Amino acid sequence: MIWWWRLFRRRIPLDRNTKKKTYLSFGVHEYWIVDPGNKTLEVYLKNQDNPEIPHLYLAEEGEVKSAVLPELSFDLKEIFIP
Predict the structure, then answer these.
(1) What is the structure's pLDDT at 7?
(2) Rg (the chain; Cα; Å)
(3) Mean pLDDT per 10-residue interval, the chain, length 82 residues
(4) How far apart are CA 82 and CA 77, in angstroms?
């Protein structure tokens, strides 16, 4: 299961901390946080060594490839259209 979340400024601490820990503890294998304001993407995996540091962190561009769904891949710049 993959879960993604778009950040809203007032909920950033909740999304980056509480929700991430909750979803991963309930079996979500991959958790994505999309921040359109900063044009960033953070990807966390359920079984990664350090759950506080993103498995993948991209800003504005770069290849995104899901660890859970290998056929899901794209360039981040395709999402953040100027």
Answers:
(1) 53
(2) 12
(3) 54 77 88 86 91 90 92 89 72
(4) 9
**One-letter amino acid identity for 19?**
K
Q: Are 76 and 57 a contacting pair, CB within 8 Å?
A: no
What pTM did the predictor assign? 0.80
CATH number, domain of 44, equals: 3.90.1570.10
What local confidence, expressed as pLDDT, does residue 33 receive?
Answer: 86
The total of structural domains in the chain comes to: 1
Structure-derived torsion over alpha carbons of residues 39, 54, 16, 40, reported in degrees to the nearest 10: 0
| Torsion sign (Cα): 71, 50, 41, 7 | positive
Number of H helices, E strands in the chain: 2, 6
